[in-house]
From TrEMBL:
UniProt name for this protein: G-protein coupled receptors family 1 profile domain-containing protein
Keyword list, A-Z: Membrane, Transmembrane, Transmembrane helix
Subcellular location(s) per record: Membrane
TM region(s), chain numbering: 27-47, 59-83, 103-124, 144-165, 203-226, 296-314, 334-355
Protein origin, superkingdom: Eukaryota
Cellular compartments per GO CC: membrane
Annotated G-protein coupled receptors family 1 profile domain residues: 39-352
Coarse class of the protein's main subcellular location: membrane
InterPro entries: GPCR-Ligand_Int, GPCR_Rhodpsn, GPCR_Rhodpsn_7TM
Amino acid sequence: GGMSLDDEFEKCQEIEFTHAQFLFRSYLFPVVYLFGIISNTINICVFSQKSMRNHTVNWFFLALSCSDLLTLVSSFFVFSVPVYAESSRDPWYIDWSVQLIVWFYPLAQTGLTMSVYVTILVSVHRYLGVCHPFLIRRISNSSAVKAVIVAAVIFAFVFNTSRWFELHAQPCFYDSAGQTNSSVVYPTALMMNNVYTLIFRNAAYTIVMFFLPFAVLTYVNLRIIATLQQSYKMRKAMTTSRTKRSDSTVPTDTIVTKIDGYSAVVPVENGTGGSGIMMGGSNGGSVKNEKKENGVTVMLVAITTEFLLFNLIAFANNIIELSTIRFFQDIETLLLSTFLVNVNGASTIIIYLIFGSKYRNVFIRLIKNNFGLNSCGDSPKRPIGYSQAHFETTQLLDNSRFDLNRNK
């Protein structure tokens, strides 16, 4: 605008929130933040249990819960605390809330980037497991998974480096009479720079945070769904042929193999040898394991679908509002999209509980062990081998180890 910033430095700019914004920021947002912070803390407890860590895909869910937690905590300080400060009219409190925005704004952006890229990683990992089982066998182990997660975290921090230089606290005088020192958040010269805004805040951000993730997730999800449908049809065919045959062997043309806990129906030259052990000693066991694996895949599809849905509106909003430059205007236009992105980050626990049978078991066990209190330690010192979930995992891992040796 034509108005110089200097005019505003004289006294603190009164940031008057509209009534709707005030209600949103002081009541609705904090409810979502509180729910999300609690639910992601529970997620972290559940996914860090030993029986969950055995399964590499859960490392991604653990990382996702951590990045969602970072985003939610940071967003609380950026979106809700300033409203409380403003209504308190206490210069010290306002000053403090301003410093917090300057610190937590870049962290919220970093957490968001992290969540997006961990979601991409878990989808790609699952896609490889479902659609390219022999490739995943060679490349997937917990150290590889941890390495790509670390890479995603580093990328999130690097991509958002300039965010740390977009805002600064500007000292100002609160009113002409008392002249109390306080401060207000102002965009820095960098953020006001048209080239920076166009190249980084508009173009790069749109590509990295929306176009790329949407393209990858949509493709990967469609492929996973198609493969699941195919394997479901094949399983139906196998079941009918099995009932016709009356003996317990697998039809010779297909055999169900377990790779790193994934199920894949792969053609085999001859069905001889080891089919009994491959099936975990019984046909029922294999079908149950496969159903369980497909359960994890369905859970992932649900999570990414929710992710795409909530971020799509945020994306549309972003495109519409690309022109704005002033920070507080900017932050208001971001209200709806940020809110939806936060709802998405907060509500993954619902999907885990609906679709993740193993998540449910561990969740219930933790609540029983800790009466809903205490920290999330592993369960009390009873032989863990007797817990059903753990036994199934071991069985699963043994099968895949056997299977690996046989195919070498």
